[in-house]
Fold these 4 entries.
Entry 1:
Amino acid sequence: MTSPTTETMTDRGEILEKSCNENKGSFLVLSGPSGSGKNTLIDFIRETDPTLRHSVSATTRPMRGSEQEGVAYYFKTREEFEKLVEEGEFIEYDCFNNNYYGTLKKEIEKLLGESANVALDLTVPGAVNIKKAFGDRVKTVFILPMSFKTLKERLDKRKTESAEKIRERIKAAAENEIGVYGCFDYIIFNDKLEDSKRAIISIYRSFRDGGEADIKEAEKYKQKNQCVRCEELVRSLKKEAEEMLAEEK
Ligand code: 5GP
């Protein structure tokens, strides 16, 4: 089984959209390379707004360290995951570093049934597919690290993956992830955590219940206002990754 196409995923999303039309919840989707700080930012907004719920995905990747079933992920075997795909149980799924990750319809229906706003942490194709399915109810945010060196340090500190796996993640980020910022509504450069927290909270509030100040602050992070800086950063990140991966060979 390979990565899904956008078309097949869109069909599934549309079916779910119909059954969820009466619900008011919105979706905040964060994407970016592993170690870019997506989960830290989601946890931060959830502290300020407990009505925001983090959707738990299904995955075939092995459980890490202190992760718990049903909290970090619903852990599945490859066979179980593929059966769920065949049964149409996913809104979207993707293959990342040889493992599957997917957003379950049931999970989203449960959260929207509680009228919750939902935060998702997805690969780039996952973010694009959720946006296609739910349109303006979805705000997508791309989190960019300022350097691969800091990203690698964060991944090393987690002590959850081998040096080889970390290398694969950096390679995937450099080759497939960081160049596609143009598909996102907002971009955050995760340099200083405090600044990134301010950015994400203003983005979230700007489409929830924020006032003028939040809307004005969020405007700064809109993709169209960040793309020149982004282009430069992506160029230097790609160069840095190339050098780093060549050195480690
Ligand atoms: P990790 O193995 O570090 O937990 O996650 C690897 C990647 O999978 C991250 O980029 C994360 O955003 C993404 N991911 C987690 N859950 C899902 C999901 O349900 N769908 C998609 N498309 N990506 C996911």
Entry 2:
Amino acid sequence: MNAIAQQDLVKTILADFPVTLEDMTYRPFGSGLINSTYLVKCGDQQFILQKINQDVFRRPEDIAENLRLINTHLQQHHPDYFFVHPLANRRQQTMFWNEEMGYYRLTPYVQGSQSIDVVGNAGEAFEAAVQFGRFTARLADFDPQRLKVTLPDFHNLRLRYDQFKSTLLHGDATRIAEATDAIDFIRSQAAIVDEYEHICNHPTLYPVRVMHHDTKISNVLLDKNKKGICVIDLDTVMPGYFFSDVGDMLRTYLSPVSEEEKDFTKIAIRIPIFAAIVKGYFQEMKEELTTAEKAHFVFAGKIMIYMQAIRFLTDHFNNDVYYGARYPYHNYVRGCNQIELLKKLNEAEPALQHILEQQIDAIQ
Ligand code: GN1
Ligand code: MG
């Protein structure tokens, strides 16, 4: 789309909302892979405009409904909790929709907030873990089954593993033939899938909770002193398990470099960051978490790193239909990066488990 057509499109959407279009400017914003995000300025007001990727989120109206339910609940029961809810348009709907343009939502920009892409120190990891823990803790009195499942089977590791295996039969034969080491490693770790199933089959030990399901650091807004303000990117808020949020924090905070890094020698497990995640999450969730959940924090990391390695490799073998690729073999590199991270987590496991046990003792 050319710039003028894009500008008209943004104006058409904004005209549906009670905002002044005066001096409107916008620019792409953030680093998400799925939805397209823009920072919009109208005079001295700022908004976040997001186009919902309907290839991924088949029923965007379910997202709007979930956020409405959560917002209502929080306002009633936890009015002090800061929750960023999308704005209602002139018809009182919190999503803009039209046949040609698809689904968009407009959210107020949180003034004075910033987000970061990589965790620089333990303080940032602590703040993020507090925010994600607080989110689930505040919703402990909300029945998670009231929420619509916006992405069915999103963190279903058994399904992801089965899809991986079937892609090995039906995917791009050249790409598969070149990736034997990665494939062998994934196969060698398949016991993670069995342990994952054990978790899902024991609801008393591992209760279903309201989980965020995308706890990367850029989904936490920080103030100028790097103190947490709130969590954002709420499309995947659904009923789920502790491992989704805890595990994705470990996956994305422990290493000083992200899943995009091509130089795998830079991938490492930062033990103090682990301690900070546990401390922050326990601070908010210690009353809620079961003994079994607390004991399985390191395992949560394994599940999520393993799942992400599988998802990137599967996409590579499927010619990048889901994540897209900014350069040839992009998803292969991302997948191998996650494999390296999992190997390093496995090596660090005894040290991490030791810290975890100390922190469990400290909150008893
Ligand atoms: C996607 O779009 P984004 O960056 O928020 C993906 C996550 C992955 C992540 C990997 C709906 O999240 O599950 O962990 O990429 N979200 C979806 O960077 O597939
Ligand atoms: Mg996301």
Entry 3:
Amino acid sequence: MCGIVGIVGKPNATEIIIKGLEKLEYRGYDSAGLFVANDTTSSLVKAQGRIKNLSDKLTPEVSGTIGIGHTRWATHGQPSEENAHPHTSQSQRLVLVHNGVIENFEELKSTYLAADTFIGETDTEIAVHVVEAFMNQGLDTKAAFKKALSVIRGSYAFGLIDKEDTETIYVAKNKSPLLVGLGDGFNVICSDAMAMLEQTNRFVELVDGEMVIVTADAIAIEDQEGHAIERESYEAQLDLTDIEKGTYPYYMLKEIDEQPAVMRRIIQNYANQEGEIQLDADLLNAMKDRDRIYIIGCGTSSHAGWVGKKIIETLTNIPVEIHLSSEFGYNMPLLSEKPFFIFLSQSGETADSRQVLVKINELNYPSLTITNVAGSTLSREATYTLLLHAGPEIAVASTKAYTAQIAVLAVLAKALGQQKGLAQAADFAFVHELGLVATAMESIINEKDLISELVAEYLTETRNAFYIGRGVDYYVSMEAALKLKEISYIQAEGFAAGELKHGTIALIEEGTPVLGIITDEVTGAHTRGNLKEVESRGAKTLVLASADLAKPTDQIVLPTVHPLLSALLTVVPTQLVAYFATLQRGYDVDKPRNLAKSVTVE
Ligand code: AGP
């Protein structure tokens, strides 16, 4: 999704901005642009498509000591050079980058900008014109920006430069992420710390409604009433090597391979030497008497929630409901008397989930965010946070975050069940079992050649494919299908195996691939029956089964692990299936079309 970088106080602003934008590429975008300036000159350059297109347009004259850059993922107006940021005001004096969506842009336009002309069709261009409209009423830049913030409704992270003051970046945020990074003789702004890690690892978080004046030597934070705010900086716990591909052709493959290490890191972070789980006592006390847990998430995170439901209900006896964020916020179900909310979000910035958390906070219900990003919006705004410790996930297709989410939900369930004195939780040797999963994951990861061959046999030509399973195997089927469709563009669906015959079986034709997941003895027998049903209608079936239930004809056999943790293992070959299917079709594995890594608009 859209990304912002900016710097003031270094002579090579152009180079720093381009590098920063490249670090944000993984988030998904369709155009990019930058503005740089110094005392005497300024340049605005934009390009549709990849950052490479923008770099190709840069000449030695495009240089400066201050600048802002942007990657745009279209919301208002098509991907085009005209709609790419930065945008300029009517007189061209002000230059603005923006992440988010301005809800009242039409009203702003008709109220303040009746005589203005516009280059593109974006809400951002209206915002920068509004700031200038207030300057035309006699306000200085800061006061005009502030007044504009008071009339703009919606989500935003703004970076604004006035060409007549090339020593200041004006910054503000509401609901969209934005950080200020501190340097020695320079300062930076960015929507994601990763973008500016080469410059600094000290950052200051901003709170919704604040405005910040950033110069080379200082940052001044003000709240809406104009009061100065003092805030400590923090050191980003990120390593540049975490965000490099190394020898891997794609981030997705690197991240699939990292999963055993992530499982072990989760053990290190949540268990002591004796293998006992150590969790915040306040969190467990807040959860133990709750009568229902609501897990809120989108996409892969929601799929991890389904597996977590099974684990939590088994170990804690607390009923769990799973809800899609985009549905829950505007269609809230009847809640139980004592609900507890868990927000699952790799990025911690997903706007659909955030709008639910805002409502939950208004209702004063306790909440926990499970996220990969410390300090993210969902983490800051929930009552409690647990981190995934998965390391940055760059590929748009989520892999290690899914398995980390399930593992951390299992950590929570084990600790909560024990807190409630439940025997099933005490008897579950979680740390030992997760260690076995990590080793078993390694053996699957070593089967890349086999999986690549199976993909060539089953998925090279096909237009569509189905994953089927029951219980947890169904939950994994949903995730497996999402992975396949989002990067290979094969129309894939994950079905409850028994549900096929109630309609979907009509889609089975000669050669349709149907992949069955089998890790449970009872339901597995039924799934095998369902595979026979589709085979007799022409489907080409492929079975992923755990070793204890496997038949000699099964194509992928997985080590048997604890049934509560089986999803951690069965999902791995399906991630590799998606990876190889995409590779064989010649698509960009890490940057699928139309998708963004962090979806910061509703
Ligand atoms: C999955 O591969 C996708 N990237 C997507 O479904 C993702 O899981 C979803 O957008 C939620 O993101 P979040 O975990 O950062 O909130």
Entry 4:
Amino acid sequence: MYRGCVKIVSVQRAAELLRAGGLVAFPTETVYGLGANALDPLAVRRIFAAKGRPPTNPLIVHVADVAAARALVRVWPPAAQRLADAFWPGPLTLVLPKQPQVPDIVTAGLDAVGVRVPSHPLAQELLRSTGLPIAAPSANRSTELSPTRPEHVARSLGSALDGIVDGGPTALGLESAVIDLTGAEPRLLRPGSLDLDRLREVCGPLRWEGNVIARKGEAQLAPGMMERHYAPRAQLVLVDADDPAQLEAIKKDSQSLRARGRKVGCLGFGVLQLKADWTHAFDPQDPETVGRELYARLHELDERGADVIYMERPPAGNRWLAIRDRLQRASVKG
Ligand code: TXA
Ligand code: MG
């Protein structure tokens, strides 16, 4: 279906397009990225325009290996080496002081750049065949759901793209963890597909200040901490399924919405039971499975025309941190 409106391109063609200043979406092991040559400010400007992304939110630069990452930064502390040895290629982004060759538009004027070595074979092939660092945010309109399949990219960005490299569904489904190594102590800026306890085993002390949700206009203080983010078109409502009063209220709301012809989706872990138009219980209920499927389920409900999605709040504990973070932001009203 999406093949009609957006061009699926080979890695070789994608590399040519990127070298010529084009915009190409490509798979990584986390989500699809919207790539442009990171050293070409005009190409990078097209990323911000296509996404409708505020210029205050910096981009991750993808490179093929540690040597290419080190070439973009001024400092390479021991913690960076340990983290890179343990998790690269993989779903980890390190923020480090940038070399002057990294254009200011990439870092939103900050002195530090986020670098990541993705493990997806097509991403690796693309990076190696261009020989370029590729700036790539998730390939979706700003604040909307991230894409884990090429059709999600096509629906969100369509004609703004020069091509999509089709790698099918992504393996992890949630974005990389972002660690800031510019301060006295490493700081987790965004929980992601690597969990906090595993990161701490390698990194040592790693500060996590909780889900800081910045108000509009504060993006520069806390890049990526914008209040509404990762959001489906439908309104997402998180439900404490073990709170009987809330459950009763939700059941009534859902019933009255449906009585007025509104469409209701229900996602959960087996406890939340609602009469809905579509219901899905994640199984098995582990963060890896939920992480892999979450965005695809939300995309699917949007596509079917859900007006409201009730979702059972995920369990407590560090393993669920990234999922709780995404859902909390996604449920902020637009
Ligand atoms: O898994 C991922 O990280 C995907 C794939 C495509 O690599 N990319 C991704 O990019 O999620 P994006 O732009 O959607 O999210 C990047 C996050 C944002 O929260 C951004 O603010 C933060 O990383 N970030 C990037 N560069 C930064 C910097 N120099 N300083 C602080 N935060 C930075
Ligand atoms: Mg994103």
